[in-house]
């Protein structure tokens, strides 16, 4: 039996939540990184014995397009799939519903779904420091319930995952991080960009129509030299103020 975390986590919040969900299982967990540009995911095949955690952040209430496209190539072959959607305390809208459809289309058996909260990767003051102690307790408890279900040989999801079909329109792009004059052109941002939107020779040269605004480049820059324009962040922060001010908690669907 393989246990595999299949992750798309540009700034690390999704990865943290996935680790917390699975760390009580006491088993060795592999990681498959959907951030890797050019990887051939069509070669990835599972069996009925295997358990995967498919974890993505919610972008505009949807699955990030690059993550959806890459995941859709994997062959589930009846493996159990735990969906984990991580969001920045606004809402996850149709993300889990879209993940459920993607997983079924690849031949996975959806066994459970979790929504968790992590620091907002654009407006960092929202859900700052999350997943925190309460989230960790909740995710550990959810992980244990999921593991017990798997051990009992139960694979089917009995609860209904929230979300609309057709999904809400994808959007939210257009927020392009740019380098400041502390950029040393090391090229790390370009190498790590999941869609190769940044020119490795000149990190100020960005294919704006390719960038998915994932904020990965801001997180990997060792010099803290990449950021959104502060006016853009201030505008988003103001828009999110009301909806993000009430703390949301992690949810489990079994
Ligand atoms: C382009 C973009 C769109 C986002 N849309 C939403 C959203 O619709 N709802 C929400 O609550 N958080 C939203 N967020 C916040 C992320 O879902 C959240 O910060 C998540 O933890 C990021 O995952 P990561 O740390 O693995 O990159 C968005 C972030 C980005 C960059």
UniProtKB/TrEMBL annotation:
Domain 4Fe-4S ferredoxin-type: 173-203, 206-231
The organism's place on the tree of life at top rank: Bacteria
A Pfam family this chain is assigned to: Fer4_7
Keywords: Iron, Iron-sulfur, Metal-binding
Domain Flavodoxin-like: 3-147
Coiled-coil ranges (or none): none
Protein name, UniProt field: 4Fe-4S binding protein
Organism listed in the record: Drancourtella massiliensis
């Amino acid at each position: 039996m393989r246990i595999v975390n299949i992750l798309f986590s540009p700034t690390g919040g999704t990865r943290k939540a996935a680790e917390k969900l699975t760390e009580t299982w006491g088993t060795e967990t592999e990681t498959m990184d959907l951030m890797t540009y050019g990887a051939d995911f069509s070669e990835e095949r599972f069996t009925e014995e295997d358990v995967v955690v498919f974890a993505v952040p919610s972008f505009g209430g949807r699955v990030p397009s690059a993550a959806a496209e890459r995941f859709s190539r994997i062959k589930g072959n009846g493996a159990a799939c735990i969906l984990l959607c991580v969001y920045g305390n606004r809402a996850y809208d149709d993300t889990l519903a879209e993940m459920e459809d993607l997983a079924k289309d690849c031949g996975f058996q959806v066994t459970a779904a979790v929504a968790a909260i992590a620091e907002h990767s654009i407006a960092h003051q929202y859900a700052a420091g999350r997943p925190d102690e309460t989230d960790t307790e909740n995710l550990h408890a959810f992980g244990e319930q999921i593991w017990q279900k798997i051990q009992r040989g139960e694979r089917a999801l009995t609860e209904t995952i929230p979300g609309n079909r057709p999904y809400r329109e994808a959007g939210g792009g257009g927020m392009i991080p740019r380098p400041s004059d502390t950029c040393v052109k090391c090229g790390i941002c370009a190498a790590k960009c999941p869609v190769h939107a940044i020119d490795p020779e000149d990190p100020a040269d960005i294919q704006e129509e390719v960038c998915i605004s994932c904020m990965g480049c801001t997180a990997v820059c060792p010099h803290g030299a990449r950021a959104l324009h502060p006016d853009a962040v201030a505008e988003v922060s103001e828009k999110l103020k009301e909806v993000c001010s009430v703390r949301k908690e992690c949810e489990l669907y079994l």
